[in-house]
Every structure is written in structure tokens, then in C-alpha cells.
Amino acid sequence: MSLLRVQGLNITFGSQPVVHGVDFSLAAGEKLALVGESGSGKTVTALSLLGLAEGAQVSGQVLFDAGQGAVDLLQIPPRQLRAIRGHDIAMVFQEPMTALNPLFSIGEQIAEVLQLKMGLSARDAQQKAISLLADTGIAEPERRARAFPHQLSGGQRQRAMMAMALACSPKLLIADEPTTALDVTVRQQILDLLDSLQKIMGLAVLLITHDLNMVRRFADRVAVMERGHIVEQGDVADLFANPQHAYTLSLLASRPVRNVVEARPDAEEAVVTKGVRVGYPIPKPGFAGWFGKNEFVAVQGADLRLCAGQTLGIVGESGSGKSTLALAVLGLLKFSNEVHLFGQAWGQGRASDLQIRSRLQVVFQDPFSSLSPRMTVEEIVGEGLSVHAPGLSGPEVRAKVITALQEVGLREAQFPGLLQRYPHQFSGGQRQRIAIARALIVNPRVLVLDEPTSALDVTMAQQILQLLQRLQAEHGLAYLLITHDVDVIRAMAHHVLVMKDGRIVEQGPVDTVFESPAEPYTRNLLAATA
Q1: How many CA atoms lie within 13 A of 64 on its CB side?
Q2: Based on the domain organization, do 248 and 324 belong to the same domain?
């Protein structure tokens, strides 16, 4: 008997159907991965199982049997469904920072579940919360239970989400992209933890993901979704070895492809740093904090060299200092020692920096948060011209905006009313193209790319990488690429720099460093992505 059986599931928003006749089942203790691109319907399918797809009209059957007879989750009263949520079926969401309440400590949020669902006293619930945090591998669980979400790292927040989800020993855990925002080593730790807890507790797991490596390592069976249909499903080993559907084949083939044009040996130095150091003041413990502060050194002694037409990849775990170093290069953080941009000193003062600011632009990790929701595409892309080319007329600005958008593959014929649209009206990959156009419009010579594909599914990520490769070849751009994805470094970079605990531990040509890594830390990073 299946723990969960979904039959003929249809989901519609207004008059728009998004999921069509989906069927799948999940046995007790089994791990099923639901795989597909953004917009394929996999997340809304998972949310609809628990009645969490707001505004959706859902039909079909979702039969759940926790041992007392099967019930149809789509037909039972809301009160009965609420009793099942969190107790028999729990969910781990993609982004814990938005799923956790910022006003309550981690321990309070876990204890609340235990009090509501298990009837524990406040004292017992708090002790159980600490025990659950310890079970998920969080160091110093008693101290971390008093911490707020913003005081934890991404991996710690995801572990806390798992502790909350597993508080009532559910029969089924739905994990929606549980490792998307994490670096490779933390991702592997979370995956190992989920695997271990699944075996210990006998959980069934429904994993929602676009990470095919994760599916290969973790799942027993896989179901592939395209445009609201399940087009193929079966055992992981069989499906990966012998995929039948064209869409499955395209997903498996969507690994980043190396397409690097070698820069000229005499290429001009674009960015050079010498001994860059970045420190933050932190309070001293106890009463001493009233009279002075300690310093946390985030980056120490960083030397790098990036030439025109080249890509320098910076790779490392969360907290290694790679993004801090990038912000220092951008002049967005105070730093000690030297940064030179095309031979000119950088970070010396507002007036002198403004003259060369347009040469250095940035594309951030999450385009949805980096693009203003209140501005149209025309306003977003053209904003930089108001600073760096204030003498342009309105028609001249619009012409440059249209040209920049065309360079990144966005045209009025494809998107009617393109210039007057807002960011929420585009997909993740299209928003990232808008962000790239915003950077390109001021004719920069260096782009800092901060995790430009980590928020995208595999096919969209490949499209963005191909776009960046083409732009570099056409314009001779230099890229400073910040990422935890070794495959992206292999595809894009000429040289790579490995950071750990704020220091550069290894650097050199990509082939040399990745084929014969000298540092154990580099070998661990590479092993985590194998």
C-alpha cells in the first residue's frame, strides 16, 4: 500500500491550467525526486498536496495513508488537513531566510510546533528543540536555539528548518529545493544529513529539485515534469542510464560547456589587488564591549590579477570571503592596501572613483531582489545613464536601452510592451538578462558576476552562461566570477582563485588547479561536486 498516491491531479489558476493529470505514488520509506525546469509545475504540485497553493483550483485525488486508512487530502475538512500538516506531512522550503520568522529565535519557532502539535509544555518543548538541533548536526545547539535566523549561516538555517519539520516525526517530508542557495560542501552536508535522518526515522521523502546530481545521489525514483505534465518516471539508475523522453535528454545534457577564448598574452591588466584586507568591528564580550570593539578580519592579504578579455573565477564555501573581496574590488566596502583598475588607484575617494566607476559593473546573484519592483524595464536598464551620461536626451536614452536589451536577447517582438513591463512579469532567466543589460549599457570593461546562475535551473543557467561567453568574445570584457559551482568555473574561467577563511589558499590556470590541486581544501571542494 502506498503512503501517498496522486491520481489525475489538475491545477488551474483562474482560467490558466498549469498542471495536467499528474499521477505518481510514494511508498513508506521511499525517496522520490520530482524534477523539472522553473515553471514546470513541480513546486505548485507539492504545495497543492497540503492545500498551500493559494488561489489555485485543484482537482483529482491525493490519497494519504498514515496507518489509519487512506484519506483524500483534497476532500477532507480544513481542520483535519491542518492536523496532518506538520504532524504527518512536513515541508522544508527552498529559502529558510524567508520561511523562518525573523522576530523569534530558532528555538522558539521549533518549540511552537511541539507545543501546538504534540501538546508539550513550554519547558519540555524548549529542551526537545535543543535536542532536535543537536540531531541535525548544529554545533552548540543550546546557544543556537537562542539565535535569530539572521544570526545563522545558510547551512545552519536549513538545518534548523529540518529540525522544525522533523519535530513531530512525520511519515512524509516534502523538501522543496533544500540546497539551492548553499555552497557545494554545505550542500553535500545537508544532503548527507537528510539521507541519514531518512534512514533513521523511516521517512518517505518527496524531493523537489532541478539539481540532477542531487537526484543521482539521493533518490530511489525520479519523475520528470515538463509544462505541467509528468513526461517520464522510473528508477533513478534506469532513467539516467536510458532516458526515453526528449525533455529528459535535454535536462541531462544541460551541463555548462566550456567555451573560452584565450586572451592575448599582452592583454591590459584590468584589475590588480595587492594585499587587500577587509575587517569588521565586532563587540567585545561582556562589559568590555562598552569601551571598545574587536575586529573580525574577513579578507586578509588578497593578491589577484585580472586581464582584459579574461575570466578569473573565485571559488570557496560560504564565509570564505569571496563575496567580501568582490565588494572591495567594486569599491562598496572599505579596505586596506591597494586596488588598481586599468592602472588607476581605486577606492581613493568619491570624486576620483566616479570617473572610472562606469568601467566596473556588477551582476548580482538574485535578479528578483536586485531589480526594483517599482521600476519599469526601461527605467531599470537606463538608470546608469543618468549618472554616467547625464547629457543624453530621452530618445537617445531609450535607443541605448533598446540596444542593450537586444544584446541580451530581449526584443519587443518577443515581449510586447517590453520597456513598460515590471520585473515580476519575467522568468528568472529573463530577469537575469535584464540585470546584465543594466550593467552593459554604460559600456563597462569589467563585470563582477556574483553567483549569476545559482538561482536558475540547469537550462536557464546554461543559456545565461552562453550569453556571457558571447558578450566576452564580442566586447573583450573581463569577468570576476564569484561562485561555489565548480562546473561554472570550468566552463567560464581562464584562471581560478580558491579562498578559505578569508585567505587565498591556491590560484592558477583552471586546468592546473582542478586537475592537480595542491591544497586539501581544493580537493574537498572538487570531491563535493564529483
Answers
A1: 20
A2: no
